[in-house]
Amino acid sequence: MRGSNARVVILHRLRDREGFTSGQALARELGISRPGVWKHIESMRAEGYQIEAVPRLGYRLIASPDVLSAEEILPLIRTKAIGRRILHFENVTSTNDVARDLAVKGEPEGTVVIAETQGEGRGRLGRAWVSPPGGVYFSVILRPVLPPGRLGNVTLMTAVATAAAIREATGVDVTIKWPNDVMADGRKVVGILTEMLGEADAVNFVIVGVGINANTDPRQYPQSVRTSLTSLSAVLGEPVDRLTLAAAVLQHFDEDWTRLARGQFGDVLHDWRRMSSTLGATVRVSTVRGVFEGTALDIGPDGELIVAMPDGRKCTFTSGEVEHLRSA
Amino acid sequence: MRGSNARVVILHRLRDREGFTSGQALARELGISRPGVWKHIESMRAEGYQIEAVPRLGYRLIASPDVLSAEEILPLIRTKAIGRRILHFENVTSTNDVARDLAVKGEPEGTVVIAETQGEGRGRLGRAWVSPPGGVYFSVILRPVLPPGRLGNVTLMTAVATAAAIREATGVDVTIKWPNDVMADGRKVVGILTEMLGEADAVNFVIVGVGINANTDPRQYPQSVRTSLTSLSAVLGEPVDRLTLAAAVLQHFDEDWTRLARGQFGDVLHDWRRMSSTLGATVRVSTVRGVFEGTALDIGPDGELIVAMPDGRKCTFTSGEVEHLRSA
Predict the structure, then answer these.
(1) A309 and A292 in contact (C-beta within 8 Å)?
(2) ipTM value of the model?
(3) Which chain A residues have a beta carbon less than 8 Å from that of B151?
(4) What residues of chain A lie within 8 A of the CB of B193, using their CB?
(5) How does strand B175-177 pair with strand B136-142?
(6) Complete domains list, chain A, with CATH
(7) B101 touches chain A (CB under 8 A)
């Protein structure tokens, strides 16, 4: 874990200025000695910050390392509920596991766990989520007043927030495949895993894990998933700015989560419809009850898919795998 | 934690016989030396077993300590899914917490965690469950194929199993107050806390915690709950056999869980109706939507309470606090 308040302040000041910031000014603001400021500068350099130091002039930031640390992200977001505390790790087993252990110990809503890589990144139903360097992997702790049956709303909201943020931060025109697959060029670029600890009629806490294939190389993925996954950099032909992307996702997450918590899930669904590639498409839905084909008409008030069958009947699906047979 | 296979076998043999069991026979069956048998006997004596040892005759069990250890319970149950592994502790924070930590690490379905006392026993919604010596406190790990919204079925099933077992093992004519309060003399004698770790549409594992006020002294409870709680021994005027009770509860739990897992929840509801004191009673239901009064008619297919209002309408409640204003 990295980060301290002093460093956040130092970075903030260095970024605010084109020229040099004096060590004395920093020392005064932080209430520490000038050698104390120098120590922080040294440790930041060790982590990849390029900081010029000139006697009598002070410090100047030349380049930041490509890490999603709290001090890099915090100045870029203006969130209410999410990311007031950001814990950044080089490598974890899974950000969801770290967040869950924290939540069990009472960590409050909004805390974000970010990692550069995950050794045992997980997807839904125990599947693996390959998490090499270059991706954006984070988990958010939520403590919603929500019956467990409504957890799907949180996953859907996360897909909406992530897709909107990717569009905004990278320009990649991602779409959402029902219920919550964020797609680019017909392949998945985001994995979402929503987990909860709850009672029969009350959720204790929810962990929402998001893995974005940002600058990952699809050739790093196992053969078995290479046809179904891609990355934003592969689609664009150049790397995306991970920091801008991570900040945008947290910002959108904060806004959409606030809407959901206020009971404005309808507004979230509105955005879902706007970005969905499923509505209007001819779809094949595979469920435990069987396989159904028809035209995807709409999404219901709880995120369920409404499909018009060839015989005119309407079917509603709350779960299942969807294939797009023909686009809208 | 106590228990080893050798001790289970020794206890089994000693219990099977009125007279003495020779140390040589035990040594042969266990494949250990006679001094090895003696060591086990010694450690059992240290835990409160009264075992007579007579040279050339062997060993004879005179009395067992009042502990709910694996070796005491296992010979009394014939379960299929539940209690194949029983972990017994003198004191834990909460059996649900111990079971949850085990489940996170992959502990299979059916493992039971029992404790003589709980330092931080929990009830629903973070309330405390006072757990002094004399109670029966255990948690069961389940790994059901169940959507999270159906978790209430597990709680209801647990109330049915526990009530049936208490009736059978102690003769106390407990009843069930909707949805899952097991009552004696109008007061609660059992606390049930069902918790899960799950995803939006799949349960990873469920921990069902049961706390039975068996031989506890109601004067040990805090003033605030003394009017609403009692114990089986207080109702009976004499202690119950905790071991017989614990074994009966696990046996019934195993049977009812098997029914639930097979989709025979209707059969469980049948037993619920048979033991319920709510059906037919005039009830006051307090919910987030308001307070309603009427006559409790029936329980629906998912455990919901169906109430006839004075104006003839029927209302269905999936959650809420029920008061019995007038019995059936």
Answers:
(1) yes
(2) 0.72
(3) 148, 198-201
(4) 199
(5) unpaired
(6) 5-63 (1.10.10.10), 70-275 (3.30.930.10), 282-326 (2.30.30.100)
(7) no
